[in-house]
Amino acid sequence: MSTVVHGTGMSDLGAVKAAHPLEGGALNRGSTCGVVSGGCLAIALANEDNLTSGDGECGAEVYRQLKEYTRWFEGRFGSTLCRERTDTSLTTIGGIANYLFSGKAFTRCIKHAGPVAERLVSELGAPYRPSNQGSASSSAGYCAGPVLRKIRELTGVGDDLLETISVALDGGVGLAGGLCGALAGALMATGVVWGIDPGDVGFHGALGSLLVGEFNTMHRLDRPELWSVAGRVIESFGQKFQSLECLDIARPFDSEQDLADFVERSTTCSAIIDWCADTTSDLIMKNT
Description:
By secondary structure, the chain is mainly alpha-helical. It has one domain (12-287). The protein is built from 16 helices and no strands. Helix 1 crosses helix 11, helix 12 (198-218) packs across helix 13 (226-241) and helix 13 runs antiparallel to helix 16 (267-287). The longest helix is centred in the N-terminal third of the chain and has 22 residues, at 56-77. The radius of gyration is 18 Å and the shape is globular.
């Protein structure tokens, strides 16, 4: 991705920072793999002009690309969920040690980044293919976008670019039924405030952030720091809605229209969107 700063005030590296809390399936909770989330965000970022064009067919095509990518990933690697791919819990010291010292960090994460990058380059370099599925105003998004817009309205955190590319998170990230898109959007807002870009801080800075975050999480420390604040959002969400995954709360989706039809009639989705926006805004304002 380039480092050009968009007129909206956020570079695509700002998007990397915002995506920080999606690592490890939502701060190591084992939901949607960070490689999946990052790939979907890359697809949306590459299609920013299509998403803001006002052409519904272009928007539907972006959702098609997202769904095709998550289907490919699941077929290639067996699952889009971090806990199923690593077969360990990253919320305990023992689980983290198993992940790092068993070689899973390389064989099930780093090693897979190469094929994913090749797949994305191939897909994004292909000619535009109309979906002929119609659209229901996809540039606004259905899950993450409404959350991010309300958080910006209440706190000033966020911008147009982040809200545009957040379509990548809809329907459980790439329509796959994983991490709830509304929750993922809320987490990205915390990433804007407290996230890091590994390219800026380097390996040791990224590792230090991980260790501090895990320490704060395990000891349930209340600090103005990403893992503490975003961790509270995740924990409260899980308690209130019984799962972090769209598959449990709703279901996977085949297309943008499928998602739009479901969200339009779902009182649960509207309640989740409001809860994510209000809860996260409150925590951001209290900790900044």
